[in-house]
Design a protein that fits this description.
Elements (H helix, E strand, L loop, with lengths): L4 H14 L2 E2 L2 E4 L6 E6 L2 E7 H6 L7 E2 L1 H26 L4 H10 L4 H13 L5 H15 L4 H10 L4 H12 L4 H11 L1 H5 L4 H14 L4 H15 L2
Antiparallel strand pairs: 1-5, 2-3, 3-4
Helix pairs in contact: 4-5, 6-7, 6-8, 7-8, 9-12, 11-12
Length: 232
């Protein structure tokens, strides 16, 4: 069932219209112990995180003014974005652009996202060059992608050209591209041997390796290395 956004908006507006009100009780929420509900007698005022509770030093007797209410709402939105980004990063590495794009799709504030991403960067939680290097290494090892495809995918993920170039260069310095291509061709030897025309066979091999992201020079060398075993 979709949430009733109109109803929630109306409830917030109703509370805003009644402010200022004193906070008479603060209770931990039943389903989330890290969140708290603020009440004026039996009237629910707002739900906040433990971090917001601490940051604003909220306690019984505090007067919830329209200005404070607005601050708490913004603090909650900020914490929501930060928690969402933490969740993404806990699953796998992300570049800053990729996180920002996911945030846009959720309708997050650009200003808040930029502030959070800057904070992550300063804390060392986010590093586009490290992300690019790990991405490049993973794709080379597990998918046998070549430098051209790796760089193209990094650019699609919003990694800057300098970082993409650096990551690919660092990778290829320790990568035997010719041997990788030779191994890839041998794995598919049975398929290529169905083609009886040697010229067409080489064309198919070339297209396959080009699609993997290897340069023409590397591909030609690899094909020449397997020529004898493929032309029998």
């Amino acid at each position: 069932m979709k949430p009733n956004w109109k109803k929630e908006t109306n409830e917030k507006r109703d509370i805003s219209d009644k402010l200022p009100l004193k906070v008479t009780s603060i209770s931990p929420q039943k389903k989330r112990a890290d969140r708290f509900s603020l009440f004026n007698e039996k009237t629910f005022l707002i739900g906040i995180s433990a971090q917001t509770l601490i940051d604003y030093k909220l306690k019984k007797g505090v007067e919830l003014t329209p200005f404070l209410f607005e601050q708490l709402q913004q603090a909650e939105e900020y914490q929501k974005i930060k928690d969402t980004f933490y969740d993404y990063l806990s699953r796998r590495d992300h570049g800053s652009h990729e996180l920002r794009q996911k945030g846009y799709r959720k309708g997050f504030s650009t200003e808040m996202m930029n502030e959070i991403l800057n904070e992550f960067d300063q804390k060392g939680l986010l590093n586009d060059l490290d992300f690019a290097r790990k991405f490049a290494a993973d794709k080379a090892e597990f998918k046998q992608w070549g430098p051209k495809k790796i760089k193209s995918e990094l650019l699609k993920k919003g990694i800057g050209k300098d970082h993409a170039d650096k990551a690919v260069k660092d990778l290829t310095n320790n990568l035997d591209q010719h041997q990788i291509c030779v191994d890839l061709l041998h794995k598919k030897k049975r398929r290529y041997m169905r083609e009886t025309d040697p010229f067409k066979r080489k064309q198919k091999m070339y297209r396959y390796l080009a699609g993997k992201g290897f340069s023409g020079e590397v591909i030609k060398k690899a094909i020449s290395l397997v020529k004898d075993s493929f032309d029998v």
